[in-house]
Automatic annotation (TrEMBL), chain A:
<dbReference type="GO" id="GO:0051539">
    <property type="term" value="F:4 iron, 4 sulfur cluster binding"/>
</dbReference>
<comment type="similarity">
    <text>Belongs to the HypD family.</text>
</comment>
<dbReference type="GO" id="GO:0051604">
    <property type="term" value="P:protein maturation"/>
</dbReference>
<keyword id="KW-0408">Iron</keyword>
<dbReference type="InterPro" id="IPR042244">
    <property type="entry name" value="HypD_2_sf"/>
</dbReference>
<dbReference type="Pfam" id="PF01924">
    <property type="entry name" value="HypD"/>
</dbReference>
<keyword id="KW-0479">Metal-binding</keyword>
From TrEMBL, chain B:
<dbReference type="InterPro" id="IPR001109">
    <property type="entry name" value="Hydrogenase_HupF/HypC"/>
</dbReference>
<dbReference type="Pfam" id="PF01455">
    <property type="entry name" value="HupF_HypC"/>
</dbReference>
<dbReference type="InterPro" id="IPR019812">
    <property type="entry name" value="Hydgase_assmbl_chp_CS"/>
</dbReference>
<protein>
    <submittedName>
        <fullName>Hydrogenase assembly protein HypC</fullName>
    </submittedName>
</protein>
<dbReference type="GO" id="GO:1902670">
    <property type="term" value="F:carbon dioxide binding"/>
</dbReference>
<dbReference type="GO" id="GO:0005506">
    <property type="term" value="F:iron ion binding"/>
</dbReference>
<comment type="similarity">
    <text>Belongs to the HupF/HypC family.</text>
</comment>
UniProtKB/TrEMBL annotation, chain C:
<protein>
    <submittedName>
        <fullName>Hydrogenase expression/formation protein HypE</fullName>
    </submittedName>
</protein>
<feature type="domain" description="PurM-like N-terminal">
    <location>
        <begin position="54"/>
        <end position="165"/>
    </location>
</feature>
<dbReference type="GO" id="GO:0051604">
    <property type="term" value="P:protein maturation"/>
</dbReference>
<comment type="similarity">
    <text>Belongs to the HypE family.</text>
</comment>
<dbReference type="InterPro" id="IPR010918">
    <property type="entry name" value="PurM-like_C_dom"/>
</dbReference>
<dbReference type="InterPro" id="IPR016188">
    <property type="entry name" value="PurM-like_N"/>
</dbReference>
<dbReference type="InterPro" id="IPR036676">
    <property type="entry name" value="PurM-like_C_sf"/>
</dbReference>
Length: 369, 82, 351
């Protein structure tokens, strides 16, 4: 596949690793913000090939993992409402709420369907005029334009049986929260390439300046990640803290103006709770008043939700890199991928889940530090 | 987060007043909303995320990235010897 | 070295649901294994089979060395490019027998039909099953038909049994792989699963692709002729895909495996669809390929014999069995990761 295969060339990967080894003079701790990048790093084992001392911390950039319990519990309650079709990206079906997940809701008779695009949910609403179709609109800035267009399109077509349960999150406030967290070890960031394809990168410049961290907008293929890591390390080695763009083939400085305009029209910025981290001011998107009619929160009265997050989980410290899973009493005992207590164990790409499946246990603690 | 893959725009038309098109990903074709890629023409590659083109691939930049990497190889070879 | 789970498409793990059957229990993954191991087999009490779970059971009747298998087929849509539920039922059952080096002697086919199914649909499926049986050289000797009320079944289910006679001198078993065995794959992976997926509402896409559904017993006969008892273990990687089949053999045999990612034959459209949906081809269902663990010294001969058959024309060696440990993939950039079993169904993802 063009624009994928070229960036998976093992020979060039070896070159990048050699160059990285050449420029690295001391240990550095970097964070890739995006779950998609975590996925490539973990699947390709890139972190194991990095020169000694370069540590990758997996960031909070998995919208699935950071979706608050309250939203999940609300989605389950809406799904259980007769006459409803709850639609979602496949990722969301296994996320545990306080008591259950959407797959289990489906087994109990709820009509829960996976869609590839929010536009498919609009089509479903058009084809099923006697049912309420709800789309669980999660994701970062990358997904927001698609969800905005679904709302705009439903409005244009006069489709009244479609609504969205919005839990959009924004990357820069999350990075700020990571940097402000006590004990933050992150010295440089790989910024999320597809978020920047939509938003551009100018909003990262104040961050780089204020916290004196290099930020490199990075793509998703192995060579992209290796080059992004190399560019970040070069900046650190040279004492620079700039915003650079490794992913120039897809990302322009101002992002995608049409997509940003649609986001601005349909959504407004709001405070948002992040699972495992807590509420971050101005870190999410919610529907503007103009489109409030499409808000599933208003359309469905599901009563008072009693949300319970597990008290033993130290997800916030894990996500900021302040603690490793081995510092957590619940890790590997009450908290496993099968019975996750929090976000880093919920997401198979989360740090705790990665540790667990790698067979790292408490007793290895001294060896691993 | 944000799985997006490049595909080639094979055709462009309108549907319900929206700019849409068929995008070919190496033998798989999918209808994609092109509302956010007004500049995309047939033959261009676009990055598609959840059924939307979010960016048109800049072929020159793509080439440049690879050229930089290959050039790095030449430098390394000279430095490290054959 | 450190193993990291790619955890493709398993973001995130489910809450254990103990009270109801989930779709994931039928996925061929860990949930399926738990359902069989903790509920279904123990429920059989003294009637339960001993030993590892095989594609087909070996039954000794007097002097005859027979293999017996049963299978249920549920597929949406009933007709897909490259096959349908009728031909797939015949191929799947023939293949389950073939994985024990048994040539099919007789099949039975039962239909569970939902009231309201258009008769031409049933006729077409039945004719397709018949044609597939003729082409495989096996009679369908018995059958049954039940009709249930509208909504009590999804259009049409097909249940089969297969009886086979085992080839002399070989006894391939999921538990018989040895360290050092070459791991051979008879053809490209993922075509069936992606073809079926392409028809799904809400995911639909057009693909230059047909299901690989086909019988493999003649391929097995050729492999046995070339390799004899060097053919240690065979599995057709249906539900759960290649990764699950490798893990089943590794676990039952007490061996590990190292697979070279770059050697895995993945057709371009399969790769494209998997990239698009965030799936891993290694977990996608197949209906017309097999994975074999063969003693290293006979591997080349067996591979050559496979390539002489049309259904094995693209056979490749994908890796080697090792002493122990998990199934590991050597990635394109030279690192290694564990190729684990999925918990439940592989879901399309955006992350």
């Amino acid at each position: 596949m063009k624009y994928i295969d070229e960036y998976r060339d093992p020979e060039l990967a070896r070159l990048l690793l050699a160059e990285l080894g050449r420029v690295t003079t001391r240990p550095w701790t970097l964070m890739e913000v995006c779950g998609g990048q975590t996925n490539t790093i973990v699947r390709q084992g890139i972190d194991e090939l990095l020169p000694g001392g370069i540590e990758m911390i997996h960031g909070p950039g998995c919208p699935v993992c950071v979706t608050p319990l309250e939203v999940l519990d609300r989605a389950m309650a809406i799904a259980a409402t007769p006459g409803t079709i709850l639609t979602s990206f496949g990722d969301m079906l296994r996320v545990p709420g306080s008591r259950t997940d959407l797959l289990a809701q489906r087994a109990r008779g709820a009509d829960v369907r996976i869609v590839y695009s929010p536009m498919d949910a609009v089509t479903l609403a058009r084809d099923n005029p006697d049912r309420q179709v709800v789309f669980l609109a999660v994701g970062f800035e990358t997904t927001a334009p698609a969800n905005a267009m679904a709302v705009l399109h439903a409005a244009a077509l006069g489709i009244t049986n479609f609504s969205v349960l919005v839990s959009h999150v924004l990357v820069p406030p999350a990075m700020t929260a990571v940097l402000r967290a006590p004990g933050c070890r992150v010295q440089g960031f790989l910024a999320a390439g597809h978020v920047c394809a939509v938003m551009g990168w100018s909003e990262y410049e104040p961050l780089a300046e204020q916290f004196r961290v290099p930020i490199v907008v990075t793509g998703f293929e192995p060579l992209d990640l290796l080059e992004g890591i190399l560019m970040t390390v070069r900046q650190l080695e040279q004492g620079r803290h700039e915003v650079e763009n490794q992913y120039a083939r897809a990302v322009r400085r101002d992002g995608n103006t049409a997509a940003r305009a649609a986001i601005r029209r349909v959504f407004r910025v709001t405070d948002r709770a992040w699972r495992g981290i807590g509420t971050i001011p101005d870190s999410g998107l919610t529907l503007t008043d103009e489109f409030a009619a499409f808000d599933a929160r208003r359309r469905f009265d599901v009563g008072r939700l009693v949300v319970r997050e597990h008290p033993d989980c130290v997800a916030g410290d894990i996500l900021t890199g302040a603690k490793t899973p081995l510092d957590c009493a619940a890790y590997g005992t009450t908290c496993t991928p099968r019975t996750p207590l929090g976000a880093p164990m919920v997401s198979a790409e989360g740090t705790c889940a990665a540790y667990y499946t790698a067979g790292r246990r408490q007793e290895d603690r001294h060896a691993s530090r | 987060m944000c799985l997006g893959i490049p595909g080639r725009v094979a055709e462009i038309d309108q549907e319900d007043g929206l700019r849409v098109g068929t995008v070919d990903f190496g033998g798989v074709r999918k209808r994609v909303c092109l509302a956010y890629a007004p500049e995309a023409a047939v033959g261009d590659y676009v990055i598609v995320h959840v059924g939307f083109a979010i960016s048109v691939v800049d072929a020159a930049e793509a080439q440049r990235t690879l050229a930089v990497l290959r050039a790095m190889g030449d430098v390394l070879e000279r430095e490290l010897g054959p | 070295m450190r193993h990291v789970d790619p955890a493709t498409g398993t973001c995130p793990a489910p809450v254990p649901e103990t009270e109801r059957v989930l779709l994931g229990h039928g996925s061929g993954g860990r949930l399926s294994a738990e359902l069989i191991g903790r509920v279904l087999v123990p429920a059989l009490g003294a009637a339960a089979p001993g030993g590892p779970l095989e594609d087909a059971a070996v039954v000794e009747v007097g002097e005859s060395d027979l293999a017996l298998s049963t299978d249920a087929y549920v597929v949406d849509p009933l007709f897909f490019p490259g096959g349908d539920i009728g031909s797939m039922a015949v191929h799947g059952t023939v293949n389950d027998l073939a994985m024990r080096a048994a040539m099919p002697v007789a099949l039975t086919v039962a239909y569970v039909v939902e009231e309201g199914l258009p008769l031409p649909v049933l006729r077409s499926v039945a004719e397709s099953a018949g044609e597939a049986a003729v082409a495989a050289g096996v009679p369908i000797v018995s059958g049954d038909t039940k009709v249930v009320g509208r909504g009590a079944a999804d259009r049409l289910f097909v249940i089969t049994a297969g009886l086979g006679r085992r080839l002399p001198g070989v006894a391939p078993s999921v538990a018989a792989a040895r360290p050092g065995d070459a791991i051979l794959l008879s053809g490209p992976i993922g075509a069936h699963g992606v073809t079926v997926l392409s028809t799904r509402e809400g995911l639909g896409f057009e693909a230059d692709l047909v299901s690989d559904s086909r019988p493999l017993h003649r391929l097995v006969a050729a492999m046995v002729a070339a390799g004899g008892d060097a053919v240690h273990a065979l599995r057709d990687p249906t539900r759960g895909g290649l990764a699950s089949a490798l893990n089943e053999i590794a676990a039952a045999s007490g061996v590990g495996a190292e697979i070279d990612e770059r050697a895995l034959p993945v057709p371009e459209p399969v790769r494209a669809a998997c990239e698009m949906l965030g799936l891993d081809p290694a977990y996608v269902a197949n209906e017309g390929c097999l994975v074999a663990f063969v003693a290293a010294e006979r591997a080349d001969a067996v591979l050559a014999a496979m390539r002489d058959r049309p259904e094995g024309a693209q056979a490749v060696r994908i890796g080697t069995a090792c002493d122990d440990g998990p199934v590991v993939v050597r990635t394109a950039v030279g690192s290694r990761r564990v190729l684990d079993v999925l918990l439940g169904e592989q879901l399309p993802r955006i992350c």
